[in-house]
Each structure stands twice: as C-alpha cells, then as structure tokens.
Amino acid sequence: MKNEQLMELLEEFAPKKYACSWDNVGFLVGRSDQEIKKVVVALDATGDVIRRAIQEKADMIITHHPMIFSSMKRVNDEGFLGRKLLDLMEHHIAVFAMHTNFDVIGMAALAGRYLDFPEDAEPLEITDEQDGRYEGIGRIAQLPEKMKLGEYVQFVKDRLSLEHVLLFGDEDTIIRTAAVSPGSGRSMIELAVQKGADVIITGDIGHHEGLDALDMGLSVIEAGHYGTEYIFIDYVADFLRRETDLEVIPVKAGSPYKIR
C-alpha cells in the first residue's frame, strides 16, 4: 500500500487532534507516495531499531516516541540524530510516530486492561470531552478489594512481565484506589493525590518526586518508562496485521538500563 494510505489509516486509529500541543506526532521522515510492504513497530527509533529495519529491508518504522522532537537547523553526519536521519533516508525508510495521541486513545486504557482496570475507568488527566465522553491520559479506579501494597506490587510485576520495579512506600500499607500513567508520570503525582489514589503506577520517578509523593500520602510503583509503555508495540502490530496485508515486525528493545 502507499504510505499516504497507511498514514490515513494510522490517523484514524490515533487521531492527531488528541496529541498535546507540545508534541510532534505523525509523519516525520519519508515520502508520502512511497510503497510500503514491510513495517517495524518499536517504542523508539533507536540506532539498534534503525539497523534492524535496514537489515529487514523495512519500508517504515512506526514508533510511540517521536525521534524528532525539537527544531533542527541542519541534517548532516556531525550529530547522532542527523546520522540516524541520513541512514533512514538513504535506505528509503519512513518514520511515523503516535505519542500523546495514542496515550489518550490507547495506551492508558490498554495499561488499565493489563492491570484489570474497568473499561469505563476515569482518565487521570482529562484532555478532551466530546458528547459527554471524557478522554485523557492515565486512568484511576478502585481495586476490586483492598490489599496490601506489597501484594499489589507483585500483581503489577506479573501482569506487565517485569522482573523489577522501584517502590516508594510501605509494603504493609493497605490500598484501595490505584492510578496508572504510562511513561513519565512525575507531573501526575499531585493529580493522583487530588483524585484520591493510594498508589500510582508509572515511570521516570526520581528521588525527590518519590519523597514528595510519600509526603502527600501516595505510594509509587516505578515500573519504568519502557516497562509501562512497551505494550504499545504488540497492540499496534496486531492492529496492522488485522487491517492491512503488511509484513509487520515488532521490535522490543527492552529498557535502556539494567538493574544489577
């Protein structure tokens, strides 16, 4: 199929109107009239992912995170991003990103399903309202029953297939209401507290954010940016296999850091 046809399908799947104003989603690299037969789906267009796409002779990489975020004044081989862009263009590989628009219509609800949140769970941050239906980033819901924080940590690890998480909180704390904000959720801490969450599952929580959350009565399960968003890969790959005849290659690069 032509790139423009695939992009139209992806725009219907995750409309650009849901993206945050600061974001850079959509068609980032390539030609709209290019023929697309093979697609790589990944969280990020890292050097390894690009090399895999070149090796597989892929025509497009679809990512969650945009590889071009801020303005660029030149594209050459003097910087790492310029070198990656040159590799993509020289091998005729297009790049398409679905970031906060996917967070709103897919990622948060998907994470909720992994964690057994109800389908109608309230968005943690409401970003859009149409015909009485609220959309937004993250989800918050009551657990089916109260449980100890330590038990819930193990549940999260099992459901997201994670070997390790960081816990800010006492394992014996009784929790009833949980929030989830896939990716970087440090800005969601106060909102989670305001909405009555006992714990939030998210990533990119540092020392100070963790201490602040505890002081506000909120426990934090820091499951990692990758650990809370890699579910994007299979979800989008499955969608493409259902809706197109493309050859789809999911690439799970794993977390960029290791816990020893």
Write the layout of secondary structure elements.
Elements: H1 3-13, E1 26-29, E2 38-42, H2 47-56, E3 60-63, H3 80-90, E4 94-97, H4 100-114, E5 122-130, E6 133-148, H5 149-159, E7 166-168, E8 174-184, H6 189-194, E9 199-203, H7 207-215, E10 219-222, H8 225-229, H9 231-243, E11 247-250
Parallel strand pairs: 2-3, 2-11, 3-4, 8-9, 9-10
Antiparallel strand pairs: 1-4, 5-6, 6-8, 7-10
Beta-sheet strand percentage? 25-35%
Task: Name the helicity range.
Answer: 25-40%
Could you give the count of β-strands? Answer: 11
Terminus-to-terminus distance: 45 Å
Element order: H for helix, E for strand:
HEEHEHEHEEHEEHEHEHHE
Decide which structural class fits the backbone. Answer: alpha/beta
The overall average pLDDT, rounded, is 95
Rg over alpha carbons: 19 Å
The number of helical elements comes to 9
Quick description:
The protein has helices spanning 3-13, 47-56, 80-90, 100-114, 149-159, 189-194, 207-215, 225-229, 231-243, and strands at residues 26-29, 38-42, 60-63, 94-97, 122-130, 133-148, 166-168, 174-184, 199-203, 219-222, 247-250. The chain has 260 residues and is of the alpha/beta class.
Describe this structure in words.
The protein folds into 2 domains: 3-98 and 230-250, 3-Layer(aba) Sandwich (Udp-n-acetylmuramoylalanyl-d-glutamate--2,6- Diaminopimelate Ligase, Chain: A, domain 1), CATH 3.40.1390; 102-225, Udp-n-acetylmuramoylalanyl-d-glutamate--2,6- Diaminopimelate Ligase, Chain: A, domain 1 (3-Layer(aba) Sandwich). Helix content is 35%, strand content 27%. The chain has 9 helices and 11 strands. It has a 6-stranded mixed β-sheet with strand order 5-6-8-9-10-7. The protein has a 5-stranded mixed β-sheet with strand order 1-4-3-2-11, sandwiched between helices. The longest helix has 15 residues, at 100-114. The model has no long low-confidence stretch (mean pLDDT 95).
